[in-house]
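We modelled the chain as a single entity of 142 amino acids. Its sequence is:
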Amino acid sequence: MSKRIVLALLLILSSVFLTIGLVHIGTLLFYGTWKEAQGKVIESRVVTRIVQMPSGKSYFYDNYFLYQYQVENKFYTSRKLGNFTYTILDTVTYKLGSIVPVKYNPLRPSSSIIEVRKEPGSIIFGVLGIILLITYFILKRK
């Protein structure tokens, strides 16, 4: 494989990995400015969708969450769990009636999330992107 192809691949991969890492870090910093309030789960269930496919019926299971929280004597309702993909197991975590910490945007209190997860995989992608970028510059100088 020629040096130009290797350098191009290193530059592309480092850009992709760095972007994933930086987006995640930016998300954490963004939600870090939000305030916290107590919320209560007012609905938590699994919804089954049946879709007719050429090969037969396919079943899809979706979580449906609804929580309520109060900011300055005003009640808000939201469904957004956080900066992650949630699974059916989260219906066990966020049971009906459970009290949950809610992060809300102080500039727009109707915008909220229940949880901000720190995904170590995203940080690993960022570090890998930096390593690939350094490798790119080392190989380019040779």
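As a brief sanity check on the tokenised model: The helical segments are 3-32, 90-93, 120-141. The two ends are 16 Å apart (CA to CA).
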